[in-house]
Specification:
about 500 residues, alpha/beta, globular
Length: about 500
């Protein structure tokens, strides 16, 4: 592949064209063709323009040659999907999949079409769009208007198949019309669209954050409803990654409960990188574990997950929260980007990939909570997950077992038997995940040791005894091998 950035003349033409297009849009198109129309009319005309231009091959070729900027540094692989660049169009604009051809040729890295629903949906009464000039923004009240997933998903599949470089995903939601029923009907609505989308797009987004509908958005009102939805979606076999569009209008306790459910459903929602939650008297800790041997992609996924969580919490709280982040990798040359997105208290070369937040930010009243009923429903949901026979990947199951039996003698043979396989099978599966038993055992011991030092306040002898080491000297050597630090530095490990 040839890259625009590596060709002087092509790079110069691209920059000049981009500057010209920006000037033309700002001073000609926007004031004279868009803002002199109502938002609804302007949106319809834009969609019509995309539908017309996609049928003009010379124009598409010209767009690709003059606007599509390519550079190897922009390429990445996330969740097994290759992206030419990280810039794309989220769901909500192109509900019926009319724009992929134009977006692909002007250089978008991805597009999410929809949200689409199981039945054709007329949406809310017009007007749908309302300009807010004082905030340089727009309020959208479309109400999921679309032609239905039976029509939209085949279009998305065709666009994805024929795209030159852009990835195409689809967002699915519950139908907003007079036939909307109870919670079970809504779950089946999602399932119909998910079955239609299975294997036909690069990714699937489950939209549970559209409140401006007849039924509202019941699946983010309680963890029990969300758990019930994903228990059914988990039964649908599909090869592509699944993402969840979360609401932005939740309090911290509400959001944390939803996050707990998604963590329980990590085999479905986060098959590559698993979040783990831990609370002590002062902090909420969130650390990330490799679920399937993602190798070189771990760093990108980790940084993307941390950034998304920080941004989401900023929306929920209305201001930046004092997240403290530490990463096990070395400080990169572009550290300023970490300061912008994660704050200036970022630490590198740490023994653990970790996010920390003072617990006080979780102590907000949660009106209408029913603790007993919530716990009962949660247990029922976990029982349903157990009945499915699959709740987590191999590395997740192994890690959980090692943590639960960390004070016992742990050997490959015994652990393999506990996991329902032979030692040779476990060894072979771990090799496929680019790891081995001792590495996983060391990881579990390291995490327990850090917890005992940082949270429980244990000394060297107590930690060594807890982990069944014969003497403190052997433990000190092991701890140095796990973390690169000596135990005396343990209390400063999470200091940022």
């Amino acid at each position: 592949m040839t890259y625009v950035s590596e060709n002087f003349w092509h790079d110069a033409v691209n920059k000049a064209t981009t500057d010209l297009f920006t000037f033309g849009y700002k001073h000609i198109i926007k004031p004279h063709f868009i803002f002199n129309q109502t938002p609804d009319v302007a949106h319809s005309q834009m969609i019509d323009f995309c539908k017309v231009t996609r049928n003009i091959p010379p124009l598409m070729w010209l767009c690709r040659e003059m606007l599509d900027y390519t550079d190897p540094i922009l390429e990445t692989n996330v969740m097994g999907v290759d992206f030419a660049n990280p810039f794309g169009l989220s769901a909500g604009l192109d509900k019926d999949c009319e724009m992929p051809v134009l977006l692909d040729n002007v250089g978008f890295g991805f597009e999410t079409v929809g949200s689409t629903t199981s039945r054709p949906c007329p949406g809310n009464p017009r007007p749908w769009f309302h300009r807010l000039p004082e905030y340089d923004s727009m309020m959208v009240h479309v109400g999921l208007a679309n032609e239905g997933s039976a029509v939209v998903i085949p279009r998305a599949e065709n666009a994805w198949t024929k795209a030159k470089s852009m990835q195409v995903s689809v967002s699915i939601a519950r139908t907003n019309d007079s036939k909307t029923g109870d919670l079970d009907e809504g779950i089946e609505d999602y399932c119909i669209s998910m079955r239609r989308a299975a294997g036909r797009t690069a990714m699937v987004e489950v939209n549970i954050s559209c409140p401006n509908t007849m039924a509202g958005e019941p699946f983010n009102q309680s963890p029990e409803a969300l758990d019930k939805l994903f228990t059914e979606l988990d039964k649908i076999d599909r090869p592509q990654p699944t993402l969840v569009k979360m609401p932005l209008n939740k309090t911290w306790p509400e959001f944390k409960d939803l996050l707990d459910v998604l963590a329980e459903q990590r085999a479905l929602l986060s098959p590559l990188l698993s979040p783990r939650l831990l609370l002590d008297e002062q902090y909420l800790y969130l650390y990330w574990l490799d679920s399937c041997g993602i190798g070189a992609q771990r760093r990108f996924l980790l940084e993307a997950s941390c950034t998304a969580l920080v941004a989401m919490s900023r929306w929920l709280a209305g201001h930046a929260l004092p997240w403290q982040c530490s990463f096990s990798h070395a400080q990169p040359r572009y550290v300023e980007q970490y300061w912008v997105h994660l704050g200036e208290t970022v630490r590198f070369d740490a023994p653990l990939d970790l996010m920390r937040l003072p617990r006080e930010y979780l102590h907000q009243p949660w009106p209408g909570a029913a603790l007993t009923a919530g716990r009962a429903a949660q247990q029922q949901g976990l029982a349903q997950l157990d009945a499915l026979g699959f709740r987590a990947g191999l590395l997740d199951r192994l890690y959980s077992y090692l943590l639960a039996h960390i004070r016992e003698p742990l050997q490959l043979e015994g652990v393999a038997l506990a996991l329902g396989m032979s030692a040779s099978t476990l060894k072979r599966k771990l090799q496929k995940h680019d790891t081995h038993f001792q590495e996983q055992l060391d990881q579990a011991r390291k995490h327990v040791a850090l917890y005992l030092y940082q949270v429980r306040g244990y000394g060297n002898e107590e930690v060594a005894a807890y982990l069944q080491f014969n003497d403190t000297t052997n433990f000190r050597r092991s701890f140095k091998r796990w973390t690169g630090l000596v135990p005396s530095q343990a209390r400063q490990m999470f200091g940022l």
